[in-house]
Amino acid sequence: MSNLKWRFPLANFGPKYGFNHAGIETFTGRRIESLTREIIQNSLDAKDFTKKGEPVIIEFSKFNLEKNKFPDLKTLSAAIDSSYIEARKLTDTTPQSFFRNAKKIIAADEIPFLRVSDFNTIGLKGVNSRSSSPWTNLVKAQGVSDKASTDGGSFGIGKNAAYACSDLRTIIYSTLTVDGEVGTQGVASLISYSVGDSRDHTQGIGYLSVSDENDAIEKLISYDSNFERKEPGTDIFIAGVTEEENIVDEIIIASLDNFFYAIYKNDLEIRVKNKTLNHLTLKSLLNEYREEINLTTYELSRLFYDENVNIYEENIYGTEKDIEIRIIIDEDGSRRVSMIRKPWMKIKEASGFPGQYKFFGTVIIKGNDLNTLLRKTENPQHDNWEPDRINHDPKTKKLAIDLIYKITKTIRDKLEKLHEVPLGDYADIFGAEDYIPLTDVSGNYQAQQKVEEAVKSSKISPMSTLTDNKPQMTISESEYELSLDLDDYEELDYDEPDPYKEKSKHKKMTFEESLKKTTTRVNAKREDIKIISKNRHEGEYRLIITSNKAHQYHLKFNILDEQSKIIDGAIIIQNAVVNGKPVAFFDNYLQYIELQEGQNLLDIKINQDIYVSIGVEIYEIQR
Global pTM? Predict the structure, then answer.
C-alpha cells in the first residue's frame, strides 16, 4: 500500500508539545498493571450482549516484528531522530534518555511488540467518522469520552496506559465491528520538533494513515504473523514493549486484584501465554498467586467461596435493592471493604472502621442509577470516589456525599449488629494501632468537619506524667483507645459539672495536685486491659482490668484527638460501678477504687453518646 505512511502534522506555529504528557505520566508508575486494568475495563465496556453466557475474552501475546515488515519504518525512525535532537536542547535529561533508547530499539533487526486482542465484543465503531465515535475517541481524541453511564472508563485518558508501556510511544490499532466495519491506524506520541527551514514545528503526534487527512486504513491488518482476526473485536499492537520478566505474572495478578468479581461471574476471561484465567481456573490461580495478590483479593475470594458469609441486599438510591454487602467476621481480617461497581471492577478499599470490628467485606454496586452517580465522582485512575470533582454541580455533589456516607453507614450498622456483645463478655482489645483518625474515608465531609471543628475549639494539651516514679505494678496500658465513630453529626459536649463550675474547677485542681504527692503513675501492658462499648447511645462502657495484686487506685479518663492529645473537659463520668459495687467519681476520675487480684469489671457511664477515643491513666495510691 504505497500511500500508507507516517505523517506528523505541523502545528501552524501553534503550541509546542513536550515529553511530559500528563495522560501518559499518570500510568508510568506501574505500567503493566495500569495497562491491564485499562484494557480490561475498555473491553468490558464493549461487550457484545447478544452473546449471552459468553465472557469477554482478552488475549495478551508478545511477539517480535522484523524491521522490514514494520510499516514505513524510515519515516518513524526519522521522527524519533528529530525528537532526540529536540530533546538534547532541554535541561531535563529524561526525554534524551527515552529517545536515545528508542533509537536503539528501532534500529534493531526485530522490534518487540505486545498484542492485546479482545473477543465477544462489538469492536470500535465509527472508523473514519469526523464526529465523536468509539474509534475516533480512542485513536484521535484527547480527554474525550462518550461512554454509557455504567461503563468503566469515563475520562478518555485510559488509553494512555498503552503508550506508557511503549518504549517507542507508538501504537497500532485495528478493529472489526459487528456491523462489518474494518479499520487500522497507527499513532506515535512523540514531541514537537522543528521542520526544515519552515520555522514551524510538528504537533508532537504522528499518524500511520493513507491520506493527509489522517484517515484510517479501511482494512484489517495484523502485524502478528501467528494471529488473524476472524470475528468482531479490537487488536492493539504496542510497539517497543521491552519488558519480558514477570509480564505474565503481572497481568494475571492485576486481573485478579482488579476484576475478581467479573471473572467469578464468568463475564471475563484472560489469556496470556500458557495461562487461562476464567471462572473455572479462578480458584487454582488464586492459590498459585496467593503470596503476590493483595490480601483483600484473597479475602474477596473467601466472601464468595466460604460458607460463613453474612449477605445483605440494601436500597441506597431509588427504589431497587442497589447494593449487595458481604461480610465475614474474622479476628485476623483486614477491616477493609472492597468497593466494586460495574463493569465489576474494584474501585477502592474502604477502611477506617471502628477498631472493635474484626472483619473483612465487600460492597457490590448493582443499581444503574447509583453506578452512574458514583462514576461521576471517580478520579482518572478509577481508584477513588472524590465528590469534590463535581463542584460545578453543587446539588449532585451533595447527593454524592450523602450517598457515599449512606453506604458507609449501612456497612457500619451491619458491623455493629454482627458485633453485639452479651453483657459480661468482652469483645476485643482496642489499642493505638486501631485508632481511627478524625477523618472519614467514606467521603462524609460534613461529619468530618463537625468533629474537627469540635476538637479545634477545645483546649488541647499533651499527655503528661504526674510522677517520675517507676511503676510498682502492671495493670493496663497507660493510654488506651476506642475508635471515633462518625455515624452522627453531633459535636462533643464539653460542659463542666453544673451548677458550680468555678468551685468544681478548684476542687479538681486540688485533687490533681494531691495525685503528685500520694500516687504513682502506673505503666501498662496491652493484654491487661480491655474496653467494650456496651451501649454507645447511652455512653456506657465496660473495662476489664487484670491486676496482679489487690490494691487501691485512682483512674483518670480522657478523650483523645487523632494525635493522641487530650481534649480538656470533654469527658464527664456520670456513674461508675466496680465489681458490682458503686464507687466514688468526680469529673473524669474514679476515686479510691479497690481492684482485686485477677480480673476486675468496671462499668462507667459518660456524657458522650458517640464512639470516642478514650485514654485511661492509672494511679496507684501509696500507703
Answer: 0.70
